[in-house]
Specification:
Elements lengths: L2 E2 L5 H8 L4 E2 L1 H6 L5 E6 L5 H12 L6 E6 L11 H7 E2 L1 H4 L4 E6 L15 H14 E7 L1 H11 L4 E15 L13 E11 L2 H5 L4 E7 L3 E7 L4 E4 L9 H11 L25 H17 L8
Parallel strand pairs: 1-2, 1-4, 3-4, 3-6, 4-5, 6-7, 7-12
Antiparallel strand pairs: 8-9, 8-10, 10-11, 11-12
Helix pairs in contact: 1-3
Pfam family, one: HTS
Function: Transfers an acetyl group from acetyl-CoA to L-homoserine, forming acetyl-L-homoserine.
Protein name: Homoserine O-acetyltransferase
């Protein structure tokens, strides 16, 4: 999928180096097709890394995609420059009169807060309510998935005895659902979180359908029955080294954290981890864009 992203975005050079098809605006205008418009609310602290991870996945199917990056107006990020945000990002007030084919709401390392105590919670609630009429399908990742479950369906998170960190096996619960079309019966997913949602809360909710679960990491993949919301409690978008970087960061902060499980070869943190989830990551994003965005979105928004 050729993706149309702003000229000068640092991820552009890296995507081209990886042979990801990045389209400039002049060429995009000459294609006689209606591109998909995807807005990404990037709540992660290291925004440039997340940009690259998500753009890599959105650039792997045969449709043209226009990307808009969104950041919160009520929270100032400490890990990205103001010039980067000013150049490549916009705020909700500037796009709230637009409609989008798809949206991604990322995770955020703020699980120790109650949702209402997050300083941009009211803004996020406004955005989530806005998506009901203005976005065809929303993909929620990790804390973003927990926020959606809490706001839309009244399902709260609970704290785990220790951080869920590592690579865990998951089982597909219904292979006939389009989102998991082509998935192996068992597949790996990276997780990095301190909280979880209860399996029984998901199973008993009439508006939700569970699609993948892990004996060790719990609920992973689910969707609303109207296909409006797709929720992932893990981080399929992570690079092979992301968990290692998080582990070293936590150790440097003096946090009492354990080594990510099933991650380093022979549990040796000096060995380079392998990416054992890449194919399912691309497949999930491709299925979402095809079946839940492209096939469902109107050609012209009324």
């Amino acid at each position: 999928m050729p993706i149309n992203i702003p000229e000068g975005l640092p991820a552009r050079k890296l995507l081209k180096k990886e042979k990801i098809f990045v389209m400039d605006e002049d060429r995009a205008r000459t294609q006689d097709i209606r591109p998909l418009n995807i807005v990404i609310l990037n709540l992660m602290p290291e925004k440039e890394k997340t940009e690259l991870q998500l753009l890599r996945l959105l650039g792997n199917t045969p449709l043209q995609v226009n990307i808009t990056f969104l950041h919160t107006a009520t929270h100032v990020s400490k890990n990205v420059s103001k010039s980067h945000l000013d150049t490549f990002y916009t705020t909700f007030n500037e796009i709230k009169n637009h409609r989008y084919d798809g949206m991604i709401i990322t995770g955020a390392p703020i699980e120790h807060f109650q949702f209402e105590d997050v300083n941009y919670w009211e803004e996020l609630v406004e955005i989530m309510d806005w998506t009901k009429k203005n976005v065809t399908s929303v993909l929620h990742i990790c804390w973003g998935a927990q926020a959606a479950l809490y706001h839309h369906y009244g399902i709260d998170k609970f704290e785990l005895p220790k951080k869920c960190s590592g690579i865990f096996q998951h089982t597909v619960t219904d292979p006939t659902v389009k989102l998991v079309r082509g998935f192996e019966d068992v597949f790996n997913v990276p997780h990095s979180r301190y909280t979880e949602v209860a399996l029984e809360d998901i199973k008993s909710h009439p508006e939700l359908k569970l699609l993948a679960v892990s004996d060790d990491a719990g609920v992973f993949l689910l969707k609303s029955k109207d296909n409006k919301h797709i929720m992932l409690t893990g981080h399929l978008e992570y690079d092979a080294t992301t968990l290692a970087e998080e582990y070293e960061r936590d150790l440097a902060k003096g946090l009492d954290v354990h080594m990510p499980e099933n991650y380093f070869p022979n549990n040796d943190k000096n060995k380079t981890p392998l990416n054992t989830w890449r194919s399912h990551t691309h497949l999930l994003f491709s299925n979402w864009l095809n079946y839940y965005v492209y096939q469902e979105t109107p050609y012209k928004w009324e």
